[in-house]
Structure formats: structure tokens, C-alpha cells
Amino acid sequence: MYYFINDYNEIMHEKILDAITKNNMVQTKGYGDDKFCDEAKELIKKSFYCPNSDVYFFMAGTQTNLTIIDAMLTRSFEAVIAVDTAHINVHEGGAIEASGHKIMNCPNENGKLNPKYIEKIMEVNLKDDHMSLPKAVYISNSTELGSIYKLDELKAIWEMCKKYDLYLFLDGARLGSALCSDKNDIKKEVLAKYTDVFYIGGTKNGAPMGEAVVINNDALKKEFTRQMKCRGSISAKSKIIGISFAELFRDNLYFELAKYANDLAIKIYDKLKSKYKFYSEVESNQIFMQISNAQIEKLKQSFAVEVPYVLDEKTSVIRIVTSWATDAKKVDELIELLLNM
């Protein structure tokens, strides 16, 4: 059995493992106050051209989203706007709702948020004091359907957020894959310009764990360490994350790994597009493909994939995910099996 279920089936890239092993017995202070985290922060700020931003390290994605959104929504009646397929809405166990805040959903368009829905929600809710009032907008790049935002789309969302005094938060769990997509036109140096906060996913791109949060809005920087502590988001051994991100960004490894994953996904799509229908555009390392349930049973004898959507009694959608560690030979075997079904 070979896994195409996600992009964190393996633990970490060998360069990161070597670096952690090398520094295993090096003594430092805890909670991110160490030379490894300091180096990683500077490398990230240099890579994304954001010298005035603040960088913080988290252990996991849900924890990251909860802590940031909770910092943005300071009054109990405030809410966050997100598409119906957003990770915070479907795969985080009600974490945002458990913090006392509402997620206001709108329809997705190929996994993405159209800013017209922000305006529709604001026009209604601003007129009625009995309703929750949005204060933040959540998007992810790449999205839950593997699609990516174009620069004009990001700018339009940003402008709508500024019109209504909303924070914009970009979940970058798969940011590397988005930025390395052949369809991408968002340069990494503009992310800090068109978001209040974004984060760089490490867990899904070669790190053993960890996400790097980049705060660009000065209003959110104040006392953010206390915000993290309140939400249980500071690890005593944050230096593991610091070492990981330093390795990822010292010599461009982060983007090399993401491109490798993307290239394999595009190969699968190119080989299968004449035979199968695809549920969403293939622009990153996630593939959503329509397939019969009978074919799924045959496929699962050799490969593990997710089945996120059931279309009818005979047809479902499978998700195939490639990663920095995917065996290219297994990709060929997967393609051959699907072509011969």
C-alpha cells in the first residue's frame, strides 16, 4: 500500500533531520528565544521581502488559525468570513466556534472567495444590530480544492477588506505549492502588502511540524506572544521548528520541495485528463478526480486516497496528493493502474 492521502505521510526531509540531529544537544533557552528561531525569522523576512513584519512559530495549522482569528476578533459579536469549503469551516472541529465567534459562510468558486460575497454580507449585517458583525476575512492559498489565487483576485479581496475595515488572513498551509504553481502570478514579495497576516506551512512541505506566522499589521503585533500563550500555542521546544525553517529557507529548499510535489501532480493530471473528469482545476499538489465507486475499490487495493465527495450512488471524487517525498515510480504505477481500469 502506498499513500497519496496527504503531504505529511513522511516525517521530515533528510536535511532537516540532519540539522536537528547535529544540534540535538545544543543548549538554548526555551519557547522560541534561541538562535535557531532568530535565524529562521530573518531568513523568512528576507525571502518574503518583509523586514518590518513579525514572525512567530506555531506547531500546527488549526492552532495557528484559531490563535490568529481570535486575535483579530476582539469583541464577542465579531465574526470571520470564509467560503463554505474553508478549512476553518469543515476540518477544524468547530475550533473557531468554540472560541465564541461565528464563521459566516459564502459559496466558493473553485474553492476561492469572490469579494462580491464580502460586500453582500457586510451590506446586510451593517444594517442590523441584532446580527454578528464581521471583522476578518479568511482565505487559503492553495485552497481546499487545490486551486490558487491570482494576483488580481488577492488585490480585489484586499481592497474589499479595506473598504469595510476587515482584517485579511491568508492560511498558507500549502503556500509553497501555491507560489510554485505554473499558474501563479503572485510574487512572494507582495504577500505582506496585500494581507494583514499570512502563514507559511512547514508541516506539509518537508518539516516535521510547524507553521511560520508573518504579521504585517502593527495593530495585531502588540502582545501577540501573550495571545499565543493564552491559546497554548507556544512550544517549549520551538527551536525544533526554528531549525526546520532555517533549513527550508537557507538555500531555497522550501520552494524546491514544493515544485517537486507540483510537478508530479501535473504529470498525473496530464496523463489522465483524457480519460477522467476533474472536480476542480489542477493548479497545485492536490488533484480532485471523478471516478466510479467500483474503480475506487480496485484502486484502494494498491493505493490509499481520500474520498471527500460522493456525487451519486455510482460516482465519487477522490483526492490524490503529491508531496516533497512522493516516489516518482509510484506515481507512474498509479497512472498505469488508472489508465487500465
TrEMBL record:
Name one molecular function that GO assigns to this entry: lyase activity
Q: Which co-factors does it depend on?
A: pyridoxal 5'-phosphate
What does the record list as coiled-coil region(s)? none
Mind telling me which Gene3D superfamilies this protein's record contains?
Answer: Aspartate Aminotransferase, domain 1, Type I PLP-dependent aspartate aminotransferase-like (Major domain)
Start and end residues of each Aromatic amino acid beta-eliminating lyase/threonine aldolase domain:
19-233
Keyword vocabulary terms for this entry: Aminotransferase, Pyridoxal phosphate, Transferase
Highest taxon, organism lineage: Bacteria
Among InterPro entries, the record links this protein to: ArAA_b-elim_lyase/Thr_aldolase (IPR001597), PyrdxlP-dep_Trfase (IPR015424), PyrdxlP-dep_Trfase_major (IPR015421), PyrdxlP-dep_Trfase_small (IPR015422)
Entry's Gene Ontology BP terms: amino acid metabolic process
**Pfam families from the xrefs?**
Beta_elim_lyase
The residues forming the signal peptide are none
State the similarity comment.
Answer: Belongs to the threonine aldolase family.
What name does UniProt use for this protein? Aminotransferase class V-fold PLP-dependent enzyme
Q: What is the lineage of its organism?
A: Bacteria, Bacillati, Bacillota, Clostridia, Peptostreptococcales
